[in-house]
């Protein structure tokens, strides 16, 4: 049996022989870019079978749930932006996790009223939000797709069943999670060998996840949100499968929380930038608003004659200002009055831009007053300034387009690497810790509340020019998601780099901090580029890598170029149908 399935894989790989893993590919027809070659192949298989971009995106996402289980999966949630070629419209499918009915502003407070330590809050039932992914896939497929779960989950089921080789990147993240997985019997069994991460080169199979996908393929969305799978999630959250001697804080999730979960179809955030139309993710993500606001601030400068360093300085400072507002004002719009009109106003951006000088701001800046640009009688909320809350840098993003011109930009996550660390017994998937994306203490628009969606940074973005798709971009990376998407847009539009170069360039992330986060993976520190910015007062804090972006460029000659990471996250996979 085993030999037969391995042979089937070999035959399939030979059939895709021309589709070697590479981070850039150009051609005609559908295109896909993901961080996992298995996932890109899954999308291609569906496109070649006549599926559209939505079908292929779900196929890729389900496969990423197998090959990148620490970043994403059916135990989490996400945001899918869809460009429907027929309607010439963009729609956002919000399937962010939601807080259960039992939630309240005090859940992440210690007995003395202080906020819990963020890291300590993560690996518990308490941090698990109602997963939205399966409902999101269902909404996307039934409204915009052409295939059902049975077809689109088939490639992922095959990979989960037959297994895949553990690579260095999987191993790296697995190693970082050893302590978290050691807390839970189910995670230890699936992801540890003798208390250590699975070794590089070993074959990793997940038959329980294959079976869960089969149950969803057969029973549809209800199979996940009602019945035995739902019951096992409720049990895992309320009575976590802790190893002996480990103390885990349970959550309080009910079957009704799961049954009542809804994905929301939302209008995207729409803005313009130097003749391009930028479509981004609305709340509960802060991504679309922050990117639009930062670009509006950038747009108030004439860039002609400016050097690369001067343009990058503006990018960093515009991002700093946008983050000050994002941290103060943006949360789930069902629970808080987000001053959209002011935040997105070009006049407000011009006012904010006046705060930018020729040198870096000496540290944090304060939020502005977008209410003054609301064109109504809104009363300013006068928020208390907040530093950037703790967020992880994980998640995954994928991009797919098809021959008809439909596009999917899709970011989805289980929050921290390995989420809560709780693998649902018998089901083979990790539950998220998305509820730690709330600000732990009130007053704040993003305070924990029942039925609320925690604020996100996920930023799937689709860019149009003259009404037609120009490119799409998105990335993982917690709050650096916003700066990665923003910097790639600036690199491409303002610095004239190809989308591939724009994505591969060293990343800098300024999120209203005293220092700017930069990568050590690429030759940035000590470079000429770094020195030019240091001369303007910028200071760096190093991290290994920022984001793992994927995108597609729609070229003027009718071809498309799929673009993924050459190095970050072990390198991605971009494939275009050639015919
Ligand atoms: N929870 C984060 C968000 O929604 C994503 C997690 C990450 O990228 O690390 O923005």
From TrEMBL:
Pathway: Sulfur metabolism; glutathione metabolism. The keyword Cell inner membrane does not apply. Residues 1-20 form the signal peptide. One of its GO terms (molecular function) is leukotriene C4 gamma-glutamyl transferase activity. Its EC number is 2.3.2.2, 3.4.19.13. Gene3D superfamilies: 1.10.246.130, 3.60.20.40. Keywords: Acyltransferase, Glutathione biosynthesis, Hydrolase, Signal, Transferase, Zymogen. InterPro entries: GGT_bact (IPR051792), GGT_lsub (IPR043138), GGT_peptidase (IPR000101), GGT_ssub_C (IPR043137), Ntn_hydrolases_N (IPR029055). The keyword Hydrolase applies. It catalyses: glutathione + H2O = L-cysteinylglycine + L-glutamate; an S-substituted glutathione + H2O = an S-substituted L-cysteinylglycine + L-glutamate; an N-terminal (5-L-glutamyl)-[peptide] + an alpha-amino acid = 5-L-glutamyl amino acid + an N-terminal L-alpha-aminoacyl-[peptide]. Cleaved by autocatalysis into a large and a small subunit. Pfam families: G_glu_transpept. Belongs to the gamma-glutamyltransferase family. This enzyme consists of two polypeptide chains, which are synthesized in precursor form from a single polypeptide. PANTHER family: GLUTATHIONE HYDROLASE, GLUTATHIONE HYDROLASE PROENZYME. This is Glutathione hydrolase proenzyme. It comes from Thauera mechernichensis. The gene is ggt.
